[in-house]
Amino acid sequence: MLLLALDTATPAVTVALHDGTDVVASSSQVDARRHGELLLPAVDRVLAEAGTRLDAVTGIVVGIGPGPYTGLRVGLMTADTFGLALGVPVHGLCTLDGLAYASDLDVPFVVATDARRKEVYWARYADSRTRVTDPAVDRPAEIADAVAGLPAVGAGALLYPDTFPQAHEPEHVSAAALASLAAEKLAAGGELPAPRPLYLRRPDAQVPKNYKVVTPK
């Protein structure tokens, strides 16, 4: 097994390689505006650090969000392209699950990432491997009762201490955590879902109302 994992659903552009036993190389850079520019060089850097080639990869793992449309699609399209070119399976994992796994918490807690527009993407967990609610997008004040008294991880939790007073790191997802979680599930005989994006809301950029198409005569 040699899994290449990547995620662009948050401001972190993160890539890792997992050999079925451990993470052998990883790279993470935080830059919300340069996902497309940073992702492929990060893949090259991780492969070089591991001393291997892309054609040695046996599977792709990609974070499916939730996240903003523009950033999220960079990772998803790259993962699909690698899968088609290499003829290997592409597995999708919820980005929030990667953050939960990296937290290593064994008590109920919340993962919340920054959804912009003064909202968070969030879900509740029984422990670092068990999500108990579907991912959702809400304003922090609207979920205060649902998360009251629970520890929280993620950039969204750190942004809103009034709602998440017990917030702490990890702030952003790491591909190393996604790869480790995927390897654990696959080794146990589990099936990972296809990489279907969790957008949860419409993209920020939209066609204006009453838009008129002008065609040449």
Automatic annotation (TrEMBL):
<protein>
    <submittedName>
        <fullName>tRNA (Adenosine(37)-N6)-threonylcarbamoyltransferase complex dimerization subunit type 1 TsaB</fullName>
    </submittedName>
</protein>
<dbReference type="InterPro" id="IPR022496">
    <property type="entry name" value="T6A_TsaB"/>
</dbReference>
<dbReference type="GO" id="GO:0016740">
    <property type="term" value="F:transferase activity"/>
</dbReference>
<dbReference type="GO" id="GO:0002949">
    <property type="term" value="P:tRNA threonylcarbamoyladenosine modification"/>
</dbReference>
<dbReference type="InterPro" id="IPR000905">
    <property type="entry name" value="Gcp-like_dom"/>
</dbReference>
<feature type="domain" description="Gcp-like">
    <location>
        <begin position="32"/>
        <end position="145"/>
    </location>
</feature>
<keyword id="KW-0808">Transferase</keyword>
<dbReference type="Pfam" id="PF00814">
    <property type="entry name" value="TsaD"/>
</dbReference>
<dbReference type="InterPro" id="IPR043129">
    <property type="entry name" value="ATPase_NBD"/>
</dbReference>
<dbReference type="GO" id="GO:0005829">
    <property type="term" value="C:cytosol"/>
</dbReference>
